[in-house]
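User: Hello, can you help with two protein structures?

Assistant: Certainly.
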Amino acid sequence: MELKTIKLVLLFGAISLMSSCYYDAENELYPSVTCDTETMSYKDDVSPIITQNCFACHRNNSTISTISLEGYNNLLVQVENGALVGTITHASGYSAMPQNLSKMSSCNISKIQAWIVQGALDN
């Protein structure tokens, strides 16, 4: 193959790449994230969030913290005194939790807050 033919093939290839189809569907690139907080359950929604985010320090017989969030009754104490929401939202006047980490996801915070608004039931 001569040099002129190679140059034409390369040029054609470059033009083909630049003019190739471009697919840009916003809903696939940036899918909407929903956070269902309509019917919250202690057992199915809140307890797993607390276990995952808080039990490293706040379980029964912890040597790290004197506050236990293990079990409904222990968590309810922190709900009723306002400390649970204050700490997880990093509100002024409360120790930000998880300590030395960023806040838990806004969806998890919303689920806990919705559960409280819905009566903080042991369900």
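That covers the first. Now for the second protein you mentioned:
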Amino acid sequence: LSDRAQTELLWISEKGITFFERAKEILEYDPSPHRTRRIVKYDDTFFRMGCGGWRLFFTVRSTEIVIHRVGIGYK
């Protein structure tokens, strides 16, 4: 997790919203794009994953996944 993502996830968890553990399991299993995992590829290394109303933006480098930020999926 980047420093930004850690801060954002802490804020979200303080509000009682818990989705990160499940999202982490999914990414550990397979971070590749797939409609049932709600993962979209933007370029060779940058991805977005939908988690309910939230979005995780991450990169994949070899065997490492770095979550850079968390955003809301609704306007």
